[in-house]
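Justification of computing resources. Each target in the renewal requires a structure prediction run like the one illustrated here; the chain below, 127 residues long, is used simply to show the kind of job we budget for.
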Amino acid sequence: MKRTLITTAAVLACALAVCALSLAALTHAVSEAGDLCSAAVLAVEERRVAQAKSLMVELAEYWEAHSAMLEFIVNHDALNEVAGALAEAQICLECADHDDFLRTMSTAQRGLEHLRFDESLCWQNLY
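Resulting structure tokens:
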């Protein structure tokens, strides 16, 4: 009986640790991507297009590097939505269409917030 309780407690502790580490990894990845999005938007608003382009390249590389890990944690469609918005924003920036760039970056940022909310630890997500 004692061994069963210890085993159950150990499995529960491992499961909670995996959940906590997954949440921390997701939060870090989404926060970093959100910061890069905000920096790129600010650069475009301040007419620093070259810096915005380099930030978008950095953001695309960051998202590509972390998307494989995020595939285990979040919905694949939500990741594709963000990746699609980022690709569209990068195209708009290359075409010097700043209004569409800002619109698609807003969509990407909403997608990132949606990822954060869907995986956050709240009562709605516990059932």
